[in-house]
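Hi support team,

I submitted a single chain yesterday and got back a structure, but I'm not sure I'm reading the token output correctly. Could someone confirm the output below corresponds to the sequence I sent? I've pasted both exactly as they appear in my results page.

Thanks,
R.
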Amino acid sequence: MTVLGVILARAGSKGLPGKCVRSLLGRPLIAYTFDHARASKRLSSVVLTTDCEAAKSLAREVGIEVIDRPARLATDTATVDAAARHAVDVWETDHGGRIDVVVLLYGNIPIRGDGLIDRAVAHLANSGADSVRSVAPVSKQHPDWLHRLDGDRMRQYRPNSIYRRQDLEPLYYHDGAVAAVTRRALFEALQTPEDKQAFLGRDRRAIVQRSDETVDVDEAIDLEIAEAILRTRLEHVHVDHG
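Hi R., thanks for writing in. Yes, this is the structure output for that exact sequence:
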């Protein structure tokens, strides 16, 4: 089974300009995703698809193949699956092979659960599903605790009388850490362009993580959270090694 890891990064970002190369503990943000991809035992090859010249240079320094993303696929309205299909097409043309599975990795996620990429690929293969994504449990922002506002008057999003967190229905959100999809599902999505999630296929599975196992950096405060978690991990490593 040939598995292509596709790291996605754009030069433009409205929330945090140039975020993929922002400094985090003295390293570019995207370098952490490079580490995760290179540590995987199940990725046959890894590419970076981007229009960011700084990110391209960083990828080449660590031996990651670079795919120049066309301007039409680097806007804030371009879809992730379109960029991934372009990367697959380029890789298959250049290498004369065919991909079976594509693993999508966002370059703005510096923290992922240990071995997550390999677990997602294994689950995809063992389940026969079309896609596997990492998810984390919803907590205080659960739909049963959300409200619409009519002026300052609160209207329950879903009528209920739940006041204990333990009584909330378990719900999960995609934390963005990893998405493994079959090549077939990725390209069959072209048949239903109106469905922006069609590339995930019909049979969609999940790997559950804790909410603190992934940090998705979209705003400046997310960098601070990621730094705090990484510092804590480094301190634990130093303590463990005495």
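A quick pointer for reading it: Residues 3-136+172-240 form a domain with the Spore Coat Polysaccharide Biosynthesis Protein SpsA; Chain A fold (CATH 3.90.550.10). Let us know if anything else looks off.

Best,
Support desk
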